[in-house]
Design goal:
Layout lengths: L6 E3 L2 E3 L4 H14 L3 E4 L3 H9 L1 H9 L2 E2 L4 H9 L10 H15 L2 E6 L4 H12 L4 E6 L9 H14 L3 E5 L4 H9 L7 E4 L3 H6 L7 H5 L3 H8 L1 H10 L1 H16 L1
Parallel strand pairs: 3-4, 3-8, 5-6, 5-7, 7-8
Antiparallel strand pairs: 1-2
Helix pairs in contact: 1-5, 11-12
Length: 253
């Protein structure tokens, strides 16, 4: 049983878990079939939480909050409550599929461009013998504003009742969608995984392992897609100011 205190950062609580502990907790949630929500905070999320009350409500509903991103690991050490390691959506997808195959749990892939989800499902089933991919769907652009499309997606998911629903719609869309539809979905656990479906399919490349360990995966992704990510990563500099302000408050207290 993990006895490490959770990290409190900018008004939210982040579970102090190793990667293997997080996988174990998510699998336990999946088996309950109670539509639990898992979020993976990163520096961008922390900055957004400072300004967006609705995003904060999503976090309050989450059953589990695991640190996705080295800046959170660095911040936890600076604040005197170190998290052991990051728990990224890109790493959770294959690890949870491996456990799902072992325990006979159904998974569903929602998100990624047309054809990418099917390719990811094929590759994951090749890696993890017996994996049950109960469904794959790539929703059209703007689907969240189309009531008929929303109902179609929910009905398709509920028809197969997956234990694990992987949602790769990008942030914050995926977090808001999961939170808004949580009461309608008959799933075990749902988690936002960003580009992880594309990584699993091999249509997008992750940073080399050495860059991941040094906390430079953001730089690799920025060089891959500068137009889309430059604004987001520029905002992340505010994250360090928020962490420093919290450190000052702790010190004065």
């Amino acid at each position: 049983m993990n006895s490490r205190p959770n990290l409190h950062l900018n008004g939210i609580e982040i579970d102090n878990l190793t990667f293997s502990e997080a996988v174990e907790r998510i699998i336990a949630l999946a088996k309950t079939l109670q539509s639990q929500l898992v979020v993976t905070p990163n520096a961008d999320h922390i900055v957004r939480l400072a300004d967006d009350a609705a995003f904060g409500e999503v976090y309050q509903k989450a059953a589990l909050r695991v640190a996705d991103g080295m800046p959170l690991i660095w911040a936890s050490k600076f604040l005197g409550n170190p998290l052991p390691e990051r728990v990224t959506g890109a790493d959770l997808l294959p690890a949870l599929c491996e456990q799902a195959a072992l325990y006979g749990l159904r998974v569903y892939l929602l998100g990624a461009p047309d054809g990418v989800g099917l390719l990811a499902a094929k590759r994951l089933k090749e890696c993890f013998h017996g994996l049950q991919v109960a469904g794959v769907y790539s929703p059209p652009f703007g689907f969240e504003h189309d009531a008929d499309e929303q109902k179609r997606i929910i009905d398709n998911i509920n028809a197969v009742k997956p234990h694990i629903l992987f949602v790769g719609l990008g942030s914050p869309k995926q977090e808001f969608w999961m939170s808004n539809e949580q009461s309608k979905l008959h799933v075990g656990v749902m988690l936002g995984i960003g580009a992880a479906i594309a990584f699993a399919a091999g249509t997008e490349k992750r940073a080399p392992r050495w860059m991941q360990k040094m906390g430079l995966e953001w730089l690799f992704r920025l060089l891959q897609n500068p137009k889309h990510l430059a604004k987001r990563y520029w905002k992340d500099f505010r994250f360090f100011r928020l962490v420093f302000q919290q450190w000052q408050q702790q010190k004065s207290a």
